[in-house]
């Protein structure tokens, strides 16, 4: 059997699929394999649960941060001001 | 007494996201928030001499930012007052002076507690993000908060996709641990 057709996956790849699921990037087959893995792996069940909670927290908090370009702008302006003050 | 040093070179990298998040929950407009954060950094730079080292740099900057936000509201309020148009929507003398909006149910009505909790949660998340290594925090912010594509982040930071997922995994584990105590 080729590697990506195996039904039983390692914890490492299960966590990888779980991370992907948080961003809706996991394929259907990856999700099936993750679910299979979660049936018998307690540690990964815990990780998946916490991971989901984290995503939920971040979504509900509506946390914001600066865009890359916005930050670069800020940096540039600040550098100029810094030079002026020295 | 712990003596805090001031070092403006790192301000943008270290505090801009925290201050921005702090502002945006209070002014609700990205551009205004950016301007206020920038003003804060400039003002901080100007009054660096007054920094006594009693509080951390961030606390000090936040205290400047608070003043800036208050000033902002003062300014727009006085402008509004000048341009106010008075209209009468009801001829009933009994209800005169009441707000028209009062009669409509607000579907987005949030209790003060909800909003407060959200604001606090936002700062809690930023506090935890600050504890991560810079690279992890950066990748996590881009991926989760700004919602960039995997590919875009890889191009921007020059890393491979599997590299990115490893970083994300570490960041998520650390964040979950950090937030676990208070918010789970």
List the uncertain runs of chain B.
Answer: none
Most residues in contact: chain pair:
A-B, 33 and 42 residues
User: Hey, roughly how much beta strand do the residues of chain A contain?
Assistant: under 5%
N-to-C span of chain A = 67 Å
Radius of gyration of chain A: 21 Å
CATH class of the largest domain in chain B: Mainly Alpha
What count of structural domains of chain B?
2
- Mean of the pLDDT scores of chain B? 78
Quaternary structure type: heterodimer
The fraction of residues in strands of chain B falls at under 5%
Count every helix of chain A, treating DSSP H or I runs of 4 or more residues as helices.
Answer: 4
The secondary-structure class of chain A comes to mainly alpha
Short description:
The complex is a heterodimer of chains A (86) and B (184). Chain A has helices spanning 11-22, 28-40, 42-61, 68-85.
């Amino acid at each position: 059997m080729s590697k990506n057709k195996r039904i039983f996956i390692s914890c490492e790849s299960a966590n990888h699929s779980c991370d992907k699921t948080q961003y809706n990037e996991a394929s259907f087959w990856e999700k099936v394999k993750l679910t299979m893995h979660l049936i018998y792996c307690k540690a990964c069940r815990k990780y998946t649960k916490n991971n989901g909670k984290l995503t939920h927290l971040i979504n509900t908090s509506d946390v914001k941060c600066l865009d890359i370009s916005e930050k670069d702008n800020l940096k540039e302006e600040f550098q100029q001001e810094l030079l002026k003050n020295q | 007494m712990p003596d805090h040093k001031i070092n403006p070179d790192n301000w943008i990298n270290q505090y801009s996201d925290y201050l921005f998040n702090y502002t945006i929950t209070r002014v609700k407009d990205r551009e205004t928030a950016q301007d206020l954060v920038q003003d804060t950094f400039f003002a901080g730079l100007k009054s660096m001499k007054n920094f006594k080292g009693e509080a951390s740099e961030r606390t000090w900057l936040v205290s400047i930012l608070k003043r800036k936000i208050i000033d902002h509201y003062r300014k727009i309020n006085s402008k509004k007052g000048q341009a106010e148009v008075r209209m009468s929507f009801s001829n009933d003398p009994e209800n005169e002076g009441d707000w028209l909006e009062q009669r409509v149910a607000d579907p987005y009505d949030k209790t003060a507690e909800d909003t407060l909790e959200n604001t606090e949660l936002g700062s809690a998340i930023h506090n935890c993000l600050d504890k991560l290594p810079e690279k992890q925090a950066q990748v996590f912010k881009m991926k989760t908060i700004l919602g960039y594509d995997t590919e875009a982040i890889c191009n921007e930071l020059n890393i491979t996709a599997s590299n990115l997922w490893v970083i994300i995994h570490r960041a998520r584990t650390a964040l979950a641990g950090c937030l676990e105590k208070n918010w789970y």
